[in-house]
Amino acid sequence: MPDDSLIPLLTRIADALDRLAPPPPVALDIAAADAFVWHTDPDRLEPVPSVNRVDIALLQGVERQRDILLDNTRRFAGCLPANNALLWGSRGTGKSSLVKSIHAVVCQERPNELALVEIHREDIPTLPRLLTRLKGEARRFILFCDDLSFDHDDAHYKSLKAVLDGGIEGRPDNVVFYATSNRRHLMPRDMIENERSTAINPAEAVEEKVSLSDRFGLWLGFHNCDQTTYFAMIEGYARHFGLEIATEQLHAEAVEWSVTRGSRSGRVAWQFIQDLAGRLGTPLR
């Protein structure tokens, strides 16, 4: 029997150890929402009651990409084979908007069957833990990483390669991975060129770097739009939100706005509409 004088000390030690121990994982309520954000330390899926997105009908100039990704997502939601998808291209061209809008469409068609889970790029190494929590669930999950890319000395891409297509277990049947990136191969070009110039076997070094993008069955390219498409975006937004302005004036102001931004894109169009609506005193709802 321990000395009674040691009991308070042992009690304090036990309490300190309890405080240091990580909290038990929060039970996953997959019916809590149609979208979640994956957080770590501690690991948890935080429900998103209202997703920041636009109506798919307002996305102009990406009809081909929309149809391909929508078909892939519908097949996945219907428990049919589907591919991981990489949406790459110029900034502000609607890549992430398209993913979120397509998720909304399929959720309307199949309520409570498909969930969108956003994972931040810096949390990619925790993907195996996330998959462990999701596999076995009846619901289907799109894992979504926005603006995915890797820099020099960043080895996180190796973790993603194993999750997407490798490993003994493989990717769970109820999970598919969608990512957006400004880079087609997810690596900066100078990083690939440096590997080619310094490696003993340049071809093998480059293959190692670009093989990550090969894990995506769908490559969907996005490019800056022409003026006709830019006007179609502006006019679609103006009609949708009831902005009262003459078409000629709308076009003139939209051109001036794009010139000051140095580009034409879906993001530039939306920023112009926000400015125009503010000047007209019209809420965007």
Please provide a written account of the structure:
- The protein contains 10 helices and 7 strands.
- By secondary structure, it is of the alpha/beta class.
- Helix 5 links the parallel strand 5 (140-145) and strand 6.
What ranges have pLDDT less than 50 throughout 5 or more consecutive residues? none
SS element count, helices: 10
| Average pLDDT, all residues | 83
Helix and strand run? HEEHEHEHEHEHHEHHH
N- to C-terminal distance: 71 Å
**Percent range for β-strand residues:** 5-15%
Rg, rounded, reads 24 Å
Work out the number of β strands: 7
- Profile the largest sheet: 7 strands, mixed
Report a brief summary of the structure.
Helix content is 44%, strand content 13%.
Write the layout of secondary structure elements.
Layout: H1 7-20, E1 35-39, E2 44-47, H2 63-77, E3 85-89, H3 95-109, E4 114-118, H4 127-134, E5 140-145, H5 156-165, E6 175-181, H6 189-198, H7 202-210, E7 218-222, H8 227-241, H9 247-261, H10 266-280
Helix pairs in contact: 2-3, 6-7, 8-9, 8-10
Feature tags:
285 residues; alpha/beta; seven-stranded mixed β-sheet; 10 helices; 44% helix
